[in-house]
Amino acid sequence: MSPPSLPFLDHRPAPPETELAIETTKTSYVLITRLPGFSLDCITLATKHHRTLHIVADKWDAEGGGHFERRITFDNTADLRNVKAEFDGTILRVFVPRRSGTKQNSASSARF
After folding, report:
1. Residue 104: what are its φ and ψ, rounded to 5°?
2. 24 within a domain of the structure (yes/no)
3. 21 and which of 17, 32, 42, 89 could share a cystine (Cβ 3.0–4.6 Å)?
4. Residue ranges of the alpha helices (H) in 1-112?
5. pLDDT of residue 63
6. pLDDT (tens digit, 9 = 90+) per residue, 16-64?
């Protein structure tokens, strides 16, 4: 008899330490998440249709592995052509500038 295992696509909520916080200012969106155990070369940022930001981090080695993935869809105020990011070994910060001259709602315009 084989040991119990989790399904391939587990539908449990993500661990709280991998929450993605989104701060919205008049000039940018700042996305912040913890990625302990990952290195910079394991993290990929990609955009799709000038509206969706895809963040992926993968690590597979002898000590174990991990996978982090989030897709965030923005309204037309986000300038996904000029995304910048910084990673200090634990915290990933992604800076998405907002286009000037576009009408902005007071509520956040990013969703994931």
Report:
1. -120, 135
2. yes
3. 32
4. none
5. 75
6. 666 889 999 999 999 999 998 899 999 999 999 889 999 999 988 777 7
